[in-house]
Design goal:
By secondary structure, the protein is of the alpha+beta class. The chain folds into three domains: 81 residues, Orthogonal Bundle (Muramoyl-pentapeptide Carboxypeptidase, domain 1), CATH 1.10.101.10; 93 residues, PGBD-like superfamily/PGBD (Muramoyl-pentapeptide Carboxypeptidase, domain 1), CATH 1.10.101.10; 125 residues, endopeptidase domain like (from Nostoc punctiforme) (endopeptidase fold (from Nostoc punctiforme)). The protein has twelve helices and eight strands. A hairpin with a 2-residue loop joins β1 and β2. The longest helix has 19 residues.
Length: 333
C-alpha cells in the first residue's frame, strides 16, 4: 500500500510539474528531446504547429514525421533568430521558440549598441563576466561568424573561444578577453575596415575578377542548408568537392571533381594571401592527404559542404579544427 501511495504521489507531482513548467504540457514535452530529420514522434507535430503559428512551416497539414519540409522550416526559424543553422531542433532552438518569434520576417538579433554596427566599451570582459555588454559582444561575434551557440549574457568557455577565434582571424593579441583593443577591432570589422581601422583592401584582381568573386560568394551562400550527400554534385546533395566544383561551374570556372585533383588546380596560396572566392584545401580530415575543400568568403570564413550531419554551412578557417587541417588555398581564376 505504501509503495502504491508513493507511486501515485510521484505521478501526480510529475503531471503537476508538466503543467506548471513552461506553461503547457505540450511545451514541456516539445523541449524534452532533440528532433531531427528522420524522427517520428508526436513532438514533431507539436513543433510543426508552433512553427506554423510563426509562418515558418507553411505546408498544408502537420504530421508526426520530421522530413525535409520540417527541416527547412526549422532552418528558416534558426536563421531568423540568429542561431546556428543545422536544421535540427535542439535546446537552443527550443529556447528561442519559447522566448517568442512573431514570424519569418523577424530579423536576426542585433546588439544593443551606441550606434549602428558598433559596441560600446565599458569594461574589459573576461571569463566569468555577466551582463548586457557580454550579450552585445556575443551578438557581434555571432554576426561575424565566430560565436556559434545561444546568446546568454554570460562570458563562459564558448564566448572565450569565439573571442580567441576572432583575435586569431584579425592577427591581434590572442588572450581570450575583450579589452579596448579587441572591442575597437570588432567595431572596425563590423564597419568594413581592417584591424588597423583602414578601409578593407579590395581583392587583388581586376574589375572582372572582383565581380566574379562576389558572384561566387553569392552562389555559394545560396546553398547554405542544403544536405551533404557523398558523391553528390548538385543542389539535391553535395559532398565537399562536388559543392566547390558546382559553385565555380555556375560562374564559368572549370575545376576538377575530386579534392585530390582540386588540390593542384590554379596557383597555391598561403593563408595570408587568401582573397574572397579562393578555393581552400584541407588535409587529413577523414583520410590522409587532401581530403576536404571549401570556398573562402573573407573575414576568416568559408562556405563548404561539411558532413552528413551539418550539410552546407559557413565555418571559421581559424577554428581549432579547421585551422589544424588547413593546407593551402588555390587561386583558380
Amino acid at each position: 500500500m505504501k509503495k502504491n501511495a508513493l507511486k501515485n504521489t510521484v505521478v501526480a507531482c510529475t503531471i503537476a510539474g508538466i503543467i506548471t513548467l513552461g506553461g503547457t504540457a505540450s511545451e514541456a514535452a516539445l523541449g524534452s528531446k532533440a528532433l531531427y530529420q528522420g524522427v517520428r514522434h508526436n513532438d514533431v507535430k507539436e513543433l510543426q504547429q508552433e512553427l506554423k503559428k510563426r509562418n515558418f512551416f507553411t505546408y498544408g497539414k502537420t504530421t508526426t514525421y520530421f522530413g525535409n519540409i520540417t527541416k527547412q522550416a526549422v532552418m528558416k526559424f534558426q536563421r531568423a533568430n540568429g542561431l546556428a543553422v543545422d536544421g535540427s531542433f535542439g535546446p537552443a532552438s527550443y529556447k528561442a521558440l519559447k522566448n517568442g518569434s512573431s514570424g519569418s520576417s523577424q530579423s536576426k538579433p542585433q546588439a544593443n549598441t551606441s550606434k549602428a554596427g558598433s559596441l560600446t566599451y565599458k569594461r574589459a570582459l573576461t571569463r566569468g563576466s555577466r551582463g548586457s555588454d557580454v550579450k552585445q559582444l556575443q551578438l557581434a561575434l555571432k554576426k561575424l561568424g565566430h560565436y556559434k551557440i545561444a546568446v546568454d549574457s554570460s562570458f563562459g568557455p564558448g564566448t572565450r573561444s569565439a573571442v580567441i577565434s576572432f583575435q586569431r582571424a584579425q592577427n591581434i593579441a590572442v588572450d581570450g578577453s575583450a579589452g579596448p583593443s579587441t572591442v575597437r577591432t570588432i567595431n572596425n570589422v563590423l564597419s568594413g575596415k581592417t584591424a588597423a581601422g583602414k578601409p578593407s583592401a579590395t581583392p587583388n584582381r581586376n574589375d572582372s575578377g572582383s565581380r566574379t568573386s562576389i558572384n561566387i560568394m553569392n552562389t555559394a551562400k545560396k546553398y547554405i542548408g542544403h544536405r551533404y550527400v557523398f558523391g553528390g554534385s548538385s543542389p539535391s546533395g553535395f559532398d565537399c568537392s562536388g559543392f566547390t566544383q558546382y559553385v565555380y561551374r555556375q560562374n564559368g570556372i572549370s575545376i576538377p571533381r575530386a579534392t585530390t585533383s582540386q588540390a593542384n588546380a590554379g596557383s597555391r596560396l598561403s593563408k595570408s594571401q587568401l582573397q574572397p572566392g579562393d578555393l581552400l584545401i584541407f588535409s587529413n580530415t577523414y583520410k590522409a592527404g587532401p581530403s576536404h575543400a571549401g570556398i573562402y568568403i573573407g573575414s576568416g570564413q568559408f562556405v563548404h559542404s561539411a558532413n552528413p550531419r551539418k550539410g552546407v554551412r559557413i565555418d571559421s578557417i581559424n577554428s581549432s579544427y579547421y585551422s589544424s587541417k588547413f593546407s593551402y588555398g588555390r587561386r583558380v581564376y
